[in-house]
């Protein structure tokens, strides 16, 4: 059955690519927003299946990547305190701060724990009343309902030895930021499916209308991504700019209403800094005043930390779709997943890490050695 | 990390006033909150993100998505240690 499905999917994929080729009259630049989509595109070579002239650029939707270095350093400063149990999702533990990663800190004796769900922190806090339990609450809108529930339950159950270090980012303001850039190249977006499973897609409608840009909410499977691209190219060719939903088998326009309700009762929108990009107005969440007792930044006195990222790193331009990993002189040489220099290399869902994982740094080396040989011959 | 993983609700229970479920992902069973999918019941397939079901899907969709996530090596979060009252006391 599996092979029949794969055969059918390959045929369907071919027919979608042919249809894109048939209707395309000029080059278009389309951005996929979500890091999971980027990973899938690079793994399955979707961008290379598309007709020449349809370029996919990779957006800022990896929450691990865009968590600022100073926030990671703050996490380290808190986790190093002797009375703290510091909890985090696994992806975040491996991201280097200015002085190593959280795993290194753990090996030096800090109580750092990987959790599956924010709710695990409630159990840890109840079981260790003499300790302060801190959760590194990172994520986009998809993760916000889980993090919000942790704080909501902690307050309701009067668990007072728990707090969260918030680094929450929001997708629509980042899209707006990209569209406002004078260097913007993006003409259409594949919107993030699982983010919209929570938020729905109403808030994308004014963005699409104001900037005259098609936004197609898309899943992350190869066929989803091809269909989302076809729907975007159709709109671009017809000169329309509306929000469409390719992923209707999972989400609708309103998203998950109970989840959104709880998120809004715990968090409020705030300005937020994005690693590699800088501050974007109203692009994140912070805890509401009623929940300030659960805000790790209020509880622990951590000085403002000054950090410096290597100037060679072009991750900011990659996150905005202006450049690709291959455009960076450090990609695959000085900068690898083991020695990341910036945002897009620190997590598997970052564009540079995905390119590296699937061997695209070797393409770069091949091109460069070919160029060098040609240069030598001339 | 924004991808949600599909699994089958195999048992429902209550924990401190929360509606919880045991959800089966391939060979692994983990707990998840059903608070955000009030209609979900035993036998349904749900998309789970960091311990919370966020949407229901059909069985075919669930199987296909699970297989793809497996190929993409995106199931590692399911391997995070299980925290119960006893293990919560000790550092990992």
CATH superfamily of the largest domain in chain A: HypD, alpha/beta domain 2
Characterize the quaternary organization of these chains: heterodimer
In the predicted model, the low-confidence regions of chain B spanning at least 5 consecutive residues are none
Number of helical segments with 4 or more residues of chain A:
18
H/I helix tally of chain B: 1
Mean pLDDT of chain B: 90
User: Architecture of chain B, according to CATH?
Assistant: Roll
Q: Kindly name the structural category of chain B.
A: mainly beta
Q: Please report the distance between the alpha carbons of the first and last residues of chain A.
A: 55 Å
Number of DSSP strands of chain B? 5
Q: Which whole number gives the mean pLDDT of chain A?
A: 92
Give the amount of beta strand of chain A, in percent: 15-25%
Please provide the ordered H/E string of secondary-structure elements of chain B: EEEEEH
CATH overall fold name of chain B: SH3 type barrels
Instruction: Categorize the overall geometry of chain B.
Output: globular
The greatest inter-chain interface is formed by: A-B, 55 and 44 residues
Level-2 CATH architecture of the largest domain in chain A:
3-Layer(aba) Sandwich
Radius of gyration of chain B: 13 Å
Number of domains of chain B: 1
Descriptive key words:
heterodimer; A: 378 residues; alpha/beta; Rossmann fold; 3 domains; six-stranded mixed beta sheet; five-stranded parallel beta sheet; 18 helices; 11 strands; 44% helix; 19% strand; globular; B: 92 residues; mainly beta; SH3 type barrels; five-stranded antiparallel beta sheet; 1 helix; 14% helix
Description:
- The complex is a heterodimer of chains A (378) and B (92).
- Chain A is 44% helix and 19% strand.
- Chain A folds into three domains: 2-64 and 185-192 and 204-236, HypD, alpha/beta domain 1 (Rossmann fold), CATH 3.40.50.11750; 65-170 and 255-299, 3-Layer(aba) Sandwich (Rossmann fold); 315-377, no CATH class.
- In chain A, helix 9 (144-156) links the parallel strand 5 (132-139) and strand 6 (162-169).
- Chain A is globular.
- Chain A has 378 residues and is of the alpha/beta class.
- Chain B has 92 residues and is mainly beta.
- Chain B has a single domain, classed as SH3 type barrels, CATH 2.30.30.140.
- Chain B is 14% helix and 39% strand.
- Chain B has one helix spanning 59-71, and strands at 5-15, 18-25, 28-33, 45-49, 52-57.
- Chain B has a five-stranded antiparallel β-sheet with strand order 3-2-1-4-5.
- Chain B is globular, with a radius of gyration of 13 Å.
- The model of chain B has no long low-confidence stretch (mean pLDDT 90).
- At the A-B interface, helix 2, strand 4, helix 8, helix 9 and helix 11 of A face strand 3, strand 5 and helix 1 of B.
